[in-house]
Amino acid sequence: MPPADQCVGDLVVADIGIPKEIIDAVDGERLEVVTLESVRELISARPVDAHKGDFGHVLIVAGSIGMSGAASLAGQGALRSGAGLVTVATPRSCLSAVAAAAPEYKTLPLPETADGRIDAEALDVLMNIRCDVIAAGPGLGTGTGARAVVHGLVEGTDVPLLLDADALNVFAV
User: Fold this and answer.
1) What is the pLDDT of residues 100-109, one digit of tens each?
2) What is the model's pTM?
3) Contact, 60 vs 135, CB < 8 A?
């Protein structure tokens, strides 16, 4: 990706060579190798008259002061994965940094604590957002507000919920 593409020599993406027979022989409930070919089989070409709303709305709950980049990267990742609409919900003081990183996603300011971390009141805001999936955690921190929001999402949302990074860490605290 630019600007690094101007600095790299020959780029080689190499198959690490795990034979299918070995993968098939491994015991376990489910083992799957994801390859470019297997993903291509799952994703069909988008119709030319499609609308971004036809491809799902991802709500990302992420970021805090000093970790707004995590929220930005999560939003960009959701867009690159094919989501039609992405909203990055982040503490109010992080909003301008997150919004500046990628104009393609929407941003939603959340109530925050005095130190720029998500406040427990953010849960009420998040529970009123219509979306198809929620991803929570990158750069969120593990404070009391983050714990309240993550636990509230786990207990109260009716859409698929992906917990990552600090959303997993709040369960270890």
Assistant:
1) 999 999 999 9
2) 0.78
3) yes
